[in-house]
Specification:
37% of the residues lie in helices and 21% in strands. The protein is an alpha/beta fold. The protein folds into two domains: 182 residues, Rossmann fold, CATH 3.40.50.970; 127 residues, Rossmann fold. Helix 7 links the parallel strand 6 and strand 7. The longest helix has 15 residues.
């Protein structure tokens, strides 16, 4: 396996799927001549030409709607948002058109398409550009929500998302783009709806997605020094959620901490912790704990930004309390 960056893994997935299926095309702001705002589509214009790698005006509602129409007509669009913060402008097409089309037409039309782009907190870009919106989209029937935490998962999950016959919300954490990891060469598919145990442990389960998976793994290493053996589970797909893997881990460890970058109220962690307490209550030796972002708009100042986001130290402390080691 070659060692490549997260952005290169996404590029490989798109290129492979476009070579395999001529119905697949990429459209969005700066995806062609500029090679993507984050260089994810580097070289794709030269390889596939302007009919399949399409620059758009700054009009998220417009090109999202164009993508929905193309999907209904039999194509398989990949729509890139420069950031999911800007996708708010396209919410009507995503939520009221793409997500509901199959239901509202009695199965006559479907929208097999991927909306993808950078999400989560970036580095010092303040409150309008540093937001985690996965809970918004996971709340909508008809949408699948995917959030890879490393380069290999990014490649395998994006390829599966492009092949999927439903609308997929694919959120890439902006800070992860430069991460390097081993990635299988050639065709590589990770089925949607399958979590992965990133670290095996016996004392407590840490459930984390996207960038927070890395934080959970770092916390697990620190906990190991303190005699606490933590298991780390990455859902990878937020909807559909692989609750079986999460519940099996909790049944083994009897304790859980759920970690997310987003706000605490009505977050993904709230859903996961509720499912654990509903379906694995008898396995728990302590209440499920949550570590989340602070309930404030993201500050611009670097010191305040650090305080607004979850930290490895907060995860370690939550795990210690849950294990009665505080």
């Amino acid at each position: 396996m070659a060692k490549i960056t997260y952005r290169e893994a996404l590029n490989q997935a798109m290129c492979h799927e476009m070579e395999r299926d001529d119905r697949v095309f990429l459209m969005g702001e700066e995806v062609a001549q500029y090679n993507g705002a984050y260089k994810v589509s580097q070289g794709m214009l030269d390889k596939f030409g302007p009919r399949r790698v399409i620059d758009t005006p700054i009009t998220e509602l417009g090109f999202a709607g164009l993508g929905v129409g193309a999907a209904m007509a039999g194509l398989r669009p990949v729509i890139e948002f420069m950031t999911w913060n800007f996708a708010i402008l396209a919410a009507d097409q995503i939520v009221n058109a793409a997500a509901k089309m199959k239901y509202m037409t009695g199965g006559q039309y479907n929208c097999p398409m991927v909306f993808r782009g950078a999400g989560g907190a970036a580095a010092r870009v303040s409150s309008q550009h540093s937001q985690a919106f996965e809970n918004w989209y996971a709340n909508i029937p008809g949408l699948k929500v995917v959030m890879p935490s490393n380069p290999a998962d990014a490649k395998g999950l994006l390829a599966a998302s492009i092949r999927d016959n439903d609308t997929v919300i694919f959120i890439e954490n902006e800070i992860n783009y430069g991460d390097v990891g081993e990635v299988p060469e050639g065709e590589y598919i990770i089925p949607l709806g399958k979590a992965e145990v990133k670290r095996v442990g016996k004392d407590i389960t840490l459930v984390a997605h996207s960038r927070m998976t890395g934080y959970a793994l770092m916390a697990a290493e620190e906990l190991a020094k303190q005699g606490i053996d933590a298991e780390v589970v990455d859902p990878r797909t937020i909807r559909p959620l692989d609750e079986e893997t999460i519940l099996a881990s909790v049944a083994k460890t009897n304790r859980a901490v759920v970690i997310e970058e987003g706000w605490r109220f009505a977050g993904i962690g709230a859903e996961i912790s509720a499912r654990i307490m509903e379906k694995a209550f008898d396995d728990l030796d302590a209440p499920v704990a949550r570590v989340t972002g602070k309930d404030v708009p993201m500050p611009y100042a670097a010191n305040l930004e650090r305080h607004a986001l979850p930290s490895v130290a907060e995860i370690v402390e939550a795990a210690r309390v849950t294990c009665n080691r505080a």
